[in-house]
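Annotated sample (chain length 88).
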Amino acid sequence: MRNLGKSAKRLNARNLSNACLISIVAIVTSGCSGGSIAIIGTNELCADWRPITVSKNDQLTEGTATQIEASNRTREVWGCHATEAQAG
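Output written by the structure step:
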């Protein structure tokens, strides 16, 4: 067996972890797709994936607020326009 340094071992562990995660996501999501792949444009994606807004009267846990913020920020990564989700 090769003698790997700590950083190489961490990199290998991270690569293995990422590969496992990708495999799990592929397996889990394949049940949803029925075995087919749908290709849609950014406009269609963004029309269906609307930003989540929060009212001043909403009572959210920190975890839920973090998930909402992550969803809204991820829209930008996929090419959707940035939105200002203001409290209403």
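Annotation: The two ends are 61 Å apart (CA to CA).
Annotation: DSSP finds three helices and no strands in the chain.
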